[in-house]
């Protein structure tokens, strides 16, 4: 029989002084209650109760065992209540992993506003441009940019989309000319990720809906898009960069958007987390907060998103040439708790 259940039965018998009374209180048969106590005595090799036809009494060993068992059961109940509370109230450390550039330019404001809303949760952010095993590495939530995670133990949902924007500095364009069609990129040094990191052939959709395929020649290799942005700002070539990275540069005129009649495929940004089963409140509320943050302006926020059927809400970080990335800095209270957030970067910058 279950040892913990036998302990609970023994305590109830001792408290009520009756097998019949304990059976009624626990909604068990008298035979089952008797068997639980007998099994305990057999396991311990000692008698716990003295039985007569009229009454029960504890033996000396029974009194000692009862005292210790009460403490064990009380501690167990306390642990269970603590775990239940953690699953229903946002509390504890929230481990998040995200790509470096997206994390620096788009995730930081979300984490700060979440920390202000839920002060009992301490975000622990790791930035890494690599595949992270959420379960093995102990992450609660992962953000994926242009990558898919296939695992029976991982749940993914689309968060939002961004776009790739062709751009250059005004000084570069004045010196080298302005590309008018995707084919013109072949005459310019380009700044984009190397082939193994998404810098392969570019497929543009033209104004008439037709496809134009070009394979630009990179001016310089870099495995980090922030570095490519810096090269673009230095006038080293034409950048093909994500909108969430260069929104402020476009808004200020430091970079000029190009090929406005052509569009590149959008970048899908996805949330990943281990299993919907018994999802802790800190994870559930953070995912809801992410979705709320990237919700398109004017679209109502859906309640209970994690349990709702159908497609999740999808937002766009920016249109091809009109990027509202400065909005990512909205509503960011400066709280002492926000400064407790720990960021560990484990990738090249």
UniProtKB/TrEMBL annotation:
Origin organism is Paraburkholderia panacisoli
- GO MF, one example: DNA-binding transcription factor activity
The family annotation for this protein states:
Belongs to the LysR transcriptional regulatory family.
Q: Which PROSITE patterns match?
A: HTH_LYSR (PS50931)
UniProt xrefs under Pfam families = HTH_1, LysR_substrate
PANTHER family this protein is in?
Answer: HTH-TYPE TRANSCRIPTIONAL REGULATOR, TRANSCRIPTIONAL REGULATORY PROTEIN
What InterPro entries does UniProt report for this protein, alphabetically? LysR-type_TF_proteobact-type, LysR_HTH_N, LysR_subst-bd, WH-like_DNA-bd_sf, WH_DNA-bd_sf
Stretches assigned to the HTH lysR-type domain = 1-59
One GO-annotated biological process of the protein: DNA-templated transcription
Tell me the protein's name: LysR family transcriptional regulator
Keyword list, A-Z? DNA-binding, Transcription, Transcription regulation
